[in-house]
Design brief:
With about 110 residues, the protein is of the alpha+beta class. The chain has a 5-stranded antiparallel sheet. The relative contact order is 0.18. The radius of gyration is 15 Å and the shape is globular. A hairpin with a 5-residue loop joins strand 4 (about 100-105) and strand 5. Helix 1 crosses helix 3. The chain has helices spanning about 25-35, 40-45, 55-60, 80-95; strands at about 10-15, 15-20, 70-75, 100-105, 110.
Length: about 110
C-alpha cells in the first residue's frame, strides 16, 4: 500500500485503536458511542440492524475477558514487518473484518483482535 493509497481511519479508546476504511463505519461507531446505552443488549436492539452494528456494539460494551476469533501479536519496531502488517490490515478491512489494536504492556508490541 503506497503512502498515497486509501486512508485508514483510526478511533482511539485508551490504549486501544479501532481501524476503519469507510467514514460510514466511523459514523456508525461514533453514533453508538454517543447513544450511551446503559448496557450491551439495549445498544444491540438499537444498532443490530446496521451493517457491522453488532460488531461495533460488542467492541464498545465488551468486558475485558471476551474471547475473539483471533488475536495476533506483532513487533512494531521492525519497519519491514510494519509495512507488511499495514498491507495485511488493509486487506482485512477491505473484506469487512473489524480490527482493534491494543498496545502490549512492554510498549514494543501490539495485539490485533
Amino acid at each position: 500500500m503506497s503512502q498515497n493509497g486509501p486512508k485508514i481511519i483510526v478511533r482511539k479508546n485508551g490504549l486501544k485503536e479501532l481501524l476503519f476504511l469507510d467514514s460510514k463505519d466511523t459514523d456508525l461507531y461514533d453514533a453508538i458511542l454517543e447513544a450511551k446505552h446503559d448496557n450491551m443488549m439495549d445498544a444491540l436492539e438499537t444498532f443490530a440492524g446496521e451493517i457491522l452494528g453488532d460488531a461495533y456494539v460488542k467492541l464498545i460494551y465488551k468486558k475485558d475477558k471476551v474471547k475473539w476469533d483471533a488475536i495476533l501479536r506483532y513487533d512494531t519496531a521492525n519497519k519491514k514487518h510494519k509495512r507488511s502488517r499495514n498491507v495485511f490490515e488493509y486487506c482485512l478491512l477491505q473484506e469487512g473484518l473489524v480490527l482493534e489494536r491494543e498496545a502490549a504492556l512492554d510498549g514494543k508490541m501490539f495485539y490485533n483482535e
